[in-house]
Design goal:
With 458 residues, the chain is α+β, with helices and mostly antiparallel strands. The protein is built from ten helices and 22 strands.
Length: 458
């Protein structure tokens, strides 16, 4: 028996209640007792915390202390009044994942079913029991099997979620930053920066950064329902990673989304797995769409419904893979079928995207197929925001690629205004020939500014 066979046994028993015939239900200890009895005819005694001092037979390794990283298939042991135990699925030096009984909705008299548990820390960790697997490591190991996990909340208290979580939204960052770089850049950003868009997670093949806990709202869809009721996941490096690396980044996102959907008891279907462009007209998730459907919303404009559903069905398929087996390792592409065609828009394509002309809606405004209100207007704007205002390529969206910024006291001459995502925007052409877009204040969605502008007009 190999260590992964031990993990598979635990996965197979998710949702089951293993009691070993004892009167107190599905306790954490009875989960391990049934495991070791089944494969080695070993019946450890005592509470879970006592497993670390139990006299295990020859072949079992008892590795005490925190100077180690648990390996898949290890039986971890926590201290405390009764202790706690379960089977490790993956670990790094900060956290480990496992399958445990009686962790959620714990009860000393009834227990609770086996469940996949993410991100146990080592604060109460006593060590591991390593069964005599054919491929077991000898002694304490420092080998990480889980990608880096950063559970560090941004420096702003987001509102609590109202009602239940309805599902997940997959985004593409429209930037070059890795998840670790976004962690460094965003964890202590200004409130204005968070208002410009912040998701619950930033993820690539190496790192998961949980920026906002999932009990809270995140401003990730520019839509009240999306922000409040859905968990947002940014796939990092959508503007610079190779197709292979970006697909690996996506796999780490799918694994995390699956774990959250398991936690919240959500099914995986078209109602619970959403695209950003289902909430507001946007190219996001542009890179994923270009890879899996061949349709590039930056080059070609708004995606039709059948293209959106094609991409959603792929996301659903991949999330289900981890939903059904949360022990699967993330960070590898779904298959070797990596497209060799370009899927990142060039700078020219970003700066001059597919034009969406639209129809007149009154007061000089037109609405294009993205749902963006726009009209021609020529004037000058001077920034009075001390930290400056970020400008964007492609169109007036907080989720488009950053072009640069207009600094405090700088003035631009603009020739068009837009109303989108709750902001009034202005746009102008820069020396390279690119068009850039910049929000200058909040809007009511009807072409009217709400509150003060972030500068002066002349």
């Amino acid at each position: 028996m190999k260590k992964q066979d031990g993990v598979k046994w635990a996965v197979k028993n998710i949702g089951n209640r293993l009691t070993d015939g004892q009167p107190y239900g599905a306790q954490c200890a009875t989960f391990i007792i049934e495991f070791t009895k089944k494969y080695w005819d070993v019946h450890p005694q005592g509470d879970a915390k006592d497993f670390i001092t139990y006299k295990w037979p020859k072949g079992f390794q008892v590795i005490k202390g925190k100077n180690q990283i648990p390996q898949p298939g290890d039986i971890f042991v926590f201290g405390g009044e009764y202790g706690h135990t379960g089977i490790v699925t993956e670990a790094n030096g900060t956290y480990f994942n496992s399958i445990d009984q009686n962790f959620y909705n714990e009860s000393l008299t009834k227990g609770s079913p086996a469940a996949f548990i993410e991100d146990h820390d080592y604060s109460n960790f006593l060590g591991v029991i390593r069964p005599p697997y054919e491929d077991a490591e000898k002694g304490a190991s420092k080998k990480s099997t889980k990608i880096e996990t950063i559970n560090h909340t941004i420096n702003y208290k987001m509102p609590s979620r109202s009602g239940n979580v309805k599902g997940v939204v997959i985004h593409n960052t429209a930037g070059n930053a890795s998840a670790k770089q976004d962690y460094n850049n965003l964890r202590n950003a200004s409130v204005a920066r968070y208002e410009a868009g912040i998701a619950h997670y930033y993820i690539d093949r190496n790192t998961v950064w949980r920026a906002i806990d999932t009990y809270s709202v995140a401003w990730h869809t520019a839509n009240q329902n999306g922000n409040n009721s859905y968990i947002g996941y940014e796939v990092n490096e959508s503007m610079n990673a190779s197709n292979k690396d970006f697909m690996a980044n996506e796999q780490a996102v799918f694994k995390k989304a699956a774990a959250d959907m398991l936690y919240y008891g959500l099914p995986v279907n078209r109602d619970t797995v959403k695209l950003h462009n289902e909430f507001v007209p946007t190219a996001c998730p542009h890179r994923s769409m270009a890879i899996y459907t061949g349709f590039d919303p930056v080059r070609q404009g708004a995606a039709p419904t059948n293209i959106k559903n094609q991409l959603k069905d792929y996301f659903i398929q991949e999330i289900k893979k981890y939903y059904n087996d949360p022990s699967l390792k993330a960070g590898s592409p779904a298959s070797s079928d990596v497209p060799d065609r370009p899927t990142i828009p060039t700078e020219k394509e970003q700066s001059k995207p597919a034009k969406q002309h639209g129809s007149s809606v009154g007061n000089g405004w037109k609405k294009n197929s993205w749902g963006i209100l726009w009209k021609k207007e020529s004037a000058s704007f001077t920034c009075n925001v001390s930290e400056g205002i970020v400008t964007r390529y492609t169109g007036p969206s907080l989720h488009n690629t950053i072009a640069g910024s207009l600094e405090y006291g700088q003035t631009v001459n603009y020739n068009e205004i837009q109303d989108y995502e709750g902001y009034i925007w202005i746009s102008w052409d820069v020396y390279s020939g690119a068009t850039v877009y910049m929000p200058i204040g909040k809007s009511d969605g009807k072409g009217n500014r709400v509150g003060k502008a972030w500068g002066t007009f002349s």
